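Pasting as-is:
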Amino acid sequence: MFIWKSCEENKQLRQEIKQVKNESAELTAKLDQINQKNDSLMLDIVDYENQIVDLEGKLKKAKNRKEIIVDRIKYVEVTNDTIKDLMLLNQINDTIIRNLEIIGTVKDSIIMNQQLVIQNDTVAIDALKSKIEEYRSIIMQQNKEVISERRKKTF
């Protein structure tokens, strides 16, 4: 009867080990999904950073054009050309403002994506830590059972 009980316990331990392996596989799959999302978010961040660089280049060009126009206007008497230059200056200022707004929006998107990456990493780490602790307790319990079975066998 003692041998049968030991075999039954071995079957139970095998089932628990199989369950732990399945849970580990599920956690690994979830972790892979989170890593894929994080990679996607990081690619979005790189795209946004490229957009910022492009917009900053356009902004610099617009500022240079603005300075050229302002220099032309400084010492010119008021004529139709002056009015045209002022209207052009106004358009360039509007372009600068729009580009700055776009840059602000893109930077906000980058910040949001980085926060999502951090949150995903935190969730994954917390889930892994809890599972590790759960597995440790299961292993400790199984070790205690093995030790008690060895003691029983010794007696």
